[in-house]
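Service request form, structural biology core

Requester: graduate student, group of Dr. S.
Request type: structure prediction, single chain
Budget code: on file
Notes: please return the result as structure tokens.

Sequence provided:
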Amino acid sequence: MTTAEQRPTPFRMPEQLFAELAAGGGSADAVAFLERAERARRLLLLRTLLDHLDTLPTPLTPAAEVWRLLKEAYERSPEPVERLLLAPTTGAWIAHMLRRVHGTATGPPLWAEAGRLGALTVAAALRAGTDTDLLVPLTDGALSLPGLGTACLPEGAEGLTVGRASTRAGELTLTGPDRAGRPTSLRCRPRPVPVAAAARAETLHWLPLRTLTHSTPTGDVAIPLEDLDPYRDLDDPVPPARLDADEAGAWQRLFDEATGILAAGGAAGPPGRLDPAVIRTIVPWERTSLLPEPPPDVRVSASSGDSYGAMVIARPSSALALAEALVHEFQHSKLAALVHLFPLLDDDRAERYYAPWRHDPRHLTGLLHGAYAFTGVAGFWRDRLAEPEHAETAAYHFALRRTQSRLVVRTLLTSGRLTPAGHALVSGLARTLDAWLREPVDPVALTRARTAAALHRTEWRLRNVAPPAGAGDTAPGGPLAGTGEPPVGTPALRPDRAPWPDNRTHAFATRPAGPRTPDEHLAAGDPAAALDGYAEELAREPADPHLLAGWIVARAALNPGPAARRLLARPELLQPQRTG
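Core staff response, request fulfilled:
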């Protein structure tokens, strides 16, 4: 742990490690380098925050004294204290606090959020076995201990109060007011526990952090399944959302299956490979019980550059979907760490670019993150091509994601806004994707993937791009419109754009056995039947962008040629400007 007197050694990433990461992958050495860089950044941000906390009025133990005790715990036992300092929730808290002191975030009284440093020190002292005696903030009589769990006073007072946390030889004594204003206390030995053992360790007054167990050749790795910490949500603090024991058990079972799928791909290095041991935290999103049944795919997943290695994920029912999400989110963590080391873009943050995995226009930074994440996803599906139980689905997703990612890479390379390091990174992605585009894929799956890609882009433009004056004079069923050349520059966006569901990307993953809807006919490779179906539905809803996108793509499949290509390039020419 650095101090104000120490000078950190400058970071210089070896060219080979940068090349591995630029290709979309990264060996164990490359990931370890990113982790060391994130450690240095975390400590610098913490030092900056401490400078602000030194002068903050507080009813708690002063920050300077808290910091002294934290360093004492570190000197006694560096490794566990270091894990606490580098935990994703610590990074989220530091970033949130820096936003607060600069006036760009809000929350409870600032002294209470600053008191997280005291909770961190109590947790460090418990890990290291040192003695502490600190005044700490309590919320409804509870103290959240990072990396350990939550201690809850018997009949603790509601709201924000001040308590006293003392540690000795790994034991915590917590005191504070009860609901009648009288002193109340508890004593316990906090520690995280595996999901399978949590029921035996949990009491009314101690909720342990549960961990997912991942077995490796060198021993078991414990990955937090974080449902308690207020800074687990990668942004502002949130209340606990404790999982039922059955839901936590479902997470462990699904995680076991997902890590088995990842292990089948081989060692880390190529894009799409992931050693689960590098995951720092999994945060379950929204659901806390087994019911209702989860969907097969991951509906929500997220990560943050402030919380390296953390992933917020809505549990699916499919281990394959979870494995894909783990790869996807760790790609974001790797890129965020690279962004902390190198300026990659001169981004004006204008949201005007097409991203094939989004309903809305994106800025260049969002495009770069998407391209990097989905290159990893394409690699994940490429590894599944040789697995008989996954081969058909894998062929579709590999073909789709390599095509979409390469489109975004081209946008980035032609944007004129990449730095030299950014250009080297994106060029590395381009080389990976260009090689993959030359690899053979099952023709039926390839056709569905190309159709799904065309449908998404077409519907995106219909919903987001403003047609020029005079467009929309050609109705479905007549000659193909759009014979003009696209104007130079970025198209104007519609003022009435809104979120829309992308139902086709996953629906086209398998070929329908008995197609009935126009989409199903198109997915089954029958564009003529699809075109008739779209035309019939458009007669009732002529302005529906979803139906119109299907009609355009089906018509282009039946009548390929320059006119069809022009309409696919600018489908908004077929739809008049909406008003109101």
